[in-house]
Structure formats: C-alpha cells, structure tokens
C-alpha cells in the first residue's frame, strides 16, 4: 500500500514513539519532539479527517519550560466521540509529573494540562496509557519507586479525576543494568468497562513471566481480582483493544514471536495463541484493533536477521474474521526497509484500517512518521 508521510521534519531520537487513536472518522496522532537541547522538547498533536491521506500541521500541546525541561518520549493518546486525551510525562529540577491534556471538540483545541501524579524521586514515572469509554476516562501508569501500578479515572470528560487507585505491583525492569521498574501498562475501554493490564515477574528482571489484568465494569468504581493474560516469557508492554465483550491483548515473546490473547467475556477469562516467527526472522511488538463484525487486524514489523544482525525490516498485517480465534496469513504493508521502528500503531476508521509507523536507519537514528491505509 502507499505510504504517506505525516511529519514535515524528521524525528530526533529513535525512542520518540508515536500513538494514534480514532473517533468519529478522525485520526488523532500525538508524538514527542526531543531535543537536541532540553529547551527544544515538546509534545505535538496532528489530526486527519481522511484516514491518513493528509494531516494537519504539528500543534504543540506542551513545550519545555524552566520548571519542566524534559519530555519523556513514550506517551499515550485515546479518542471517543469528540473527546481526545493525550497523557505524557515531563521532568525538571523539582521532579517528574504525569499530565493529561483533553480536547472536547475533536482535537480542534485542548484544555489546560491536568497533573495526575508527581514525584521527586529519581526513579520517576512509568510509561502511561489512556483509554476513553462511555462516561469514563482512565489513565494508568507505574510508580517506579514503589512498583505500584496505578490508575485514575474521570467521569467529567477529564475536567477532574478521582484519587489514584493501586491495582497491583510489578518487579519488572525495563533496564537490566539500573533496574528501572516499570509495569509497561496497557489500557482499553468500551462502554462502561475499563481494562488495565501490566507486565509482572516473580523476581526483579528485565522481562515478564506474566501479563496480568484487572477489569472494572462500572467505570472504575470496583475492580475484579487480577487475572492472567499469559504466563509465557515476554518483553512486556501489552497492547489492548476492546469492542463489546471482546478484549484482545498482544505482547512480544522473548523467543521472537507474538502472543495474541483474547477474552470474549469482558476480561473474565483468556485464551492465547502463539504466533511464531518464520526462520531467520523476529517479530516486533504488535498492535491490534477490533473492527465491526468480529473482524480483527494485527500489525507488526518482521525483522530479517542474519548472524544475529538486523538486515532489513518489513511492516506486515494479519486479519481475523472470527474475533481472533484464527488468523489469515500475513500480508506485507511495505517493502523491505533498512529500519522501521519496532512499534507500529493500527486503528480502524469504520471498516478502513490505517497503520502508522516510524522509519529510521540501521544506525538507530529516526526519520519520519508514515501512515498507510490497508486495502
């Protein structure tokens, strides 16, 4: 399929991840601009009303200042009806803060930023996730100092949030050298239901041996006990989507494959499928989107390896027509490229599917964000 460039200027760092969400036929994209100087950091927002064929110019919804001089690269965006929420982290001399900015008119303008959690401890705040359902907005993250997985919910379209609630703890580290604890949370919402998943380990280590999830059926008032999505060894960071009573989660295994786990009872029980990588390849982290009529689309980057070195990458997609029970063979979205960022995003605008991916080079430097519409 055709790749359309989203960004006018290339990115500055490989870990400048993007996130995309959709509602009312509009795509909403948020991504950070990092450096080269601390004062240059910012969070930018773009929107598309034609499934990604063209995009609005970049609009800064946060700029570094004397109090908050640095933006953390990984952020989150969600959309529902006319609501758009972007959750991001910023740091400065006094510590770290997790913010959310909300648009109530489909991304045309954003209200002021709302602080959700602050800490002066050096460990900082874990990667956030955000989701919006009917009358509920949920933002989840990890308190890296304590390992607590926390969530705050709003029933006022993001104007105010209830006190933070701890759903569990994690020992997983995203850095095997310095032990940066982070549950790498994932969140999905549909109707009144909210699902928060995180990565966990029996002992401190830099991969997960379980993905756990808790579900609220009443917009965050009460939560189920923690349930297991998978107990395979993975790199953590579950991606979730929900439609009706179906919830699907994906996560990358340490052996180079993917786990696609689904619940057809609103998170009460889970069944997983292991997608193995073909010989000589590894599969990147994946993203998943549920479509009407029990259709599902999955996207990931297939990495071609030789002598333990990355030779090329290719963006692929897979489809399911039975709610994720079975999957059709993978189809290429792009030709081989030197380097694609290993975390593509996929969303559905009605029956149309758009994938957003970041390009790069083998030396690790990023280039541009692209959007591709599947046929």
User: Helicity, in percent?
Assistant: under 10%
Number of helices: 0
Tell me the distance between the termini: 7 Å
Largest sheet properties: 5 strands, antiparallel
Beta-strand percent range: over 45%
Low-confidence stretches: none
- Helical/strand content category: mainly beta
Nearest-integer average pLDDT: 91
Number of DSSP E strands:
31
**Molecular shape:** globular
**Computed CA radius of gyration, to the nearest angstrom:** 19 Å
Molecular structure report:
The chain is an all-beta fold. The chain contains no helices and 31 strands. It has strands spanning 3-5, 19-23, 26-33, 42-48, 59-63, 70-71, 76-80, 83-92, 95-103, 114-119, 129-133, 136-143, 148-154, 165-169, 186-190, 193-200, 210-216, 227-230, 239-243, 246-252, 258-263, 271-275, 281-283, 287-291, 295-306, 309-320, 331-332, 339-340, 345-349, 352-360, 366-373. Strands 1, 28, 29, 30 and 31 form a 5-stranded antiparallel sheet that branches. Strands 6, 7, 8, 9 and 10 form a 5-stranded antiparallel sheet that branches. The protein starts with a strand and ends with a strand. 51% of the residues are buried. The model has no long low-confidence stretch (mean pLDDT 91).
What brief labels describe this structure?
single chain, 375 residues, five-stranded antiparallel sheet
SSE inventory with pairings:
Layout lengths: L2 E3 L13 E5 L2 E8 L8 E7 L10 E5 L6 E2 L4 E5 L2 E10 L2 E9 L10 E6 L9 E5 L2 E8 L4 E7 L10 E5 L16 E5 L2 E8 L9 E7 L10 E4 L8 E5 L2 E7 L5 E6 L7 E5 L5 E3 L3 E5 L3 E12 L2 E12 L10 E2 L6 E2 L4 E5 L2 E9 L5 E8 L2
Antiparallel strand pairs: 1-31, 2-3, 3-4, 4-5, 6-8, 7-8, 8-9, 9-10, 11-12, 12-13, 13-14, 15-16, 16-17, 17-18, 19-20, 20-21, 21-22, 23-25, 24-25, 25-26, 26-27, 28-30, 29-30, 30-31
């Amino acid at each position: 399929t055709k790749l359309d460039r989203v960004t006018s200027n290339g990115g500055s760092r490989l870990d400048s991840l993007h996130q995309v969400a959709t509602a009312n036929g509009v795509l909403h994209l948020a991504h950070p601009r990092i450096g080269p100087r601390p004062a240059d950091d910012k969070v930018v927002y773009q929107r598309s009303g034609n499934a990604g064929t063209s995009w609005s110019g970049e609009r800064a919804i946060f700029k570094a200042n004397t109090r908050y001089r640095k933006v953390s690269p990984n952020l989150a965006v969600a959309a529902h009806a006319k609501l758009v929420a972007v959750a991001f982290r910023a740091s400065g001399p006094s510590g770290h803060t997790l913010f959310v900015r909300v648009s109530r008119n489909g991304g045309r303008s954003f209200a002021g930023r709302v602080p959700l959690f602050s800490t002066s401890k050096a460990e900082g705040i874990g990667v956030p996730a955000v989701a919006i359902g009917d009358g509920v907005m949920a933002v989840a993250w990890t308190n890296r100092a304590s390992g607590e997985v926390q969530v705050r919910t709003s029933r006022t379209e993001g104007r105010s949030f209830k006190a933070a609630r701890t759903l569990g703890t994690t020992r997983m580290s995203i850095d095997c050298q310095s032990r940066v604890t982070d549950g790498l949370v994932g969140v999905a919402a549909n109707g009144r239901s909210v699902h928060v998943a995180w990565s966990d380990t029996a002992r401190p280590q830099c991969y997960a041996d379980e993905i756990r999830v808790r579900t609220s059926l009443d917009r965050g008032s009460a939560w189920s006990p923690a349930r297991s999505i998978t107990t395979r060894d993975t790199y953590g960071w579950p991606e979730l989507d929900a439609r009706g009573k179906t919830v699907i989660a994906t996560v990358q295994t340490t052996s180079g494959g993917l786990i696609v786990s689904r619940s057809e009872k609103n998170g009460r029980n889970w069944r997983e499928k292991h997608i193995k990588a073909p010989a000589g390849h590894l599969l990147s982290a994946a993203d998943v989107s549920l479509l009407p009529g029990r259709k599902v689309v999955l996207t990931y980057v297939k990495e071609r390896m030789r002598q333990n070195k990355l030779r090329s990458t290719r963006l692929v997609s897979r489809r399911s027509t039975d709610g994720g029970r079975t999957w059709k063979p993978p189809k290429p979205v792009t030709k081989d490229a030197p380097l694609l960022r290993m975390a593509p995003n996929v969303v559905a605008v009605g029956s149309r599917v758009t994938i957003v991916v970041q390009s790069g080079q083998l030396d690790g430097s990023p280039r541009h964000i692209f959007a591709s519409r599947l046929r």
